[in-house]
From TrEMBL:
<dbReference type="Pfam" id="PF08534">
    <property type="entry name" value="Redoxin"/>
</dbReference>
<dbReference type="InterPro" id="IPR050553">
    <property type="entry name" value="Thioredoxin_ResA/DsbE_sf"/>
</dbReference>
<keyword id="KW-0472">Membrane</keyword>
<keyword id="KW-0812">Transmembrane</keyword>
<protein>
    <submittedName>
        <fullName>Redoxin family protein</fullName>
    </submittedName>
</protein>
<feature type="domain" description="Thioredoxin">
    <location>
        <begin position="36"/>
        <end position="180"/>
    </location>
</feature>
<keyword id="KW-1133">Transmembrane helix</keyword>
<dbReference type="InterPro" id="IPR013766">
    <property type="entry name" value="Thioredoxin_domain"/>
</dbReference>
<dbReference type="InterPro" id="IPR036249">
    <property type="entry name" value="Thioredoxin-like_sf"/>
</dbReference>
<dbReference type="InterPro" id="IPR013740">
    <property type="entry name" value="Redoxin"/>
</dbReference>
<feature type="transmembrane region" description="Helical">
    <location>
        <begin position="12"/>
        <end position="32"/>
    </location>
</feature>
Length: 180
């Protein structure tokens, strides 16, 4: 019995070490992918913004986030051609029921094409159109999907590139709300 317990403890330590190494690799990759996200305020570049009701306006990401003063805002950068972005659509739509969400359609065409894509997929998102990916690059994102939280000072916090779970998104928003 004692020998069996020692063997189980040794296995547990090995699994814990493996889990720590995997966590270190994931954290390092996320840091590398988001290394260019600037620490300052959002770029103040005017964009065409598509609203869930189908209307269009001109606004900046900063002015859109300021409409939700006092609340962290989720920022989701996506592209219509990205299969992982498609996998996250339900998560973003669900998140938008509970938190303010701004999306950026990177390299997905002009406003008319993005609006058609949103209608076809039934996506009720506030979407800034970034046809050439210029704003996405200014935000420090070179790949999609990307997720970050805009804090009360208009800065991007806790960025992630690649698939982000619903829990991961919500925990980031809650953390920024708690941190003030």
């Amino acid at each position: 019995m004692v020998a069996w317990l020692r063997k189980q403890l040794a296995n547990w330590r090995g699994h814990l070490l493996t889990l720590l190494m995997v966590a270190a690799v994931v954290i390092t990759v996320q840091w590398w992918q988001t290394r260019d996200v600037p620490p300052g305020p959002l770029p103040d570049v005017p964009l065409t913004v598509l609203m869930p009701d189908g209307s269009r306006s001109e606004a900046t990401l900063r002015s859109l986030s300021e409409r939700h003063a006092g609340s962290p805002v989720a920022l989701h950068v996506w592209a219509e051609w990205c299969p992982i972005c498609k996998a996250e659509e339900g998560t973003i739509t669900s998140l938008a029921r509970d938190w303010p969400v701004i999306t950026v359609a990177m390299q997905s065409g002009d406003a008319a094409k993005v609006a058609a894509e949103l209608r076809q997929r039934h996506l009720p998102w506030v979407t800034a159109v970034d046809p050439r990916g210029d704003v996405s690059r200014q935000l420090g994102f070179r790949a999609v999907p990307a997720f970050a939280v805009i804090d009360a000072d208009g800065r991007l916090r806790l960025p992630a590139v690649g698939y982000t779970t619903s829990l991961g998104m919500r925990l980031r928003l809650w953390w920024i709300r708690l941190a003030g």
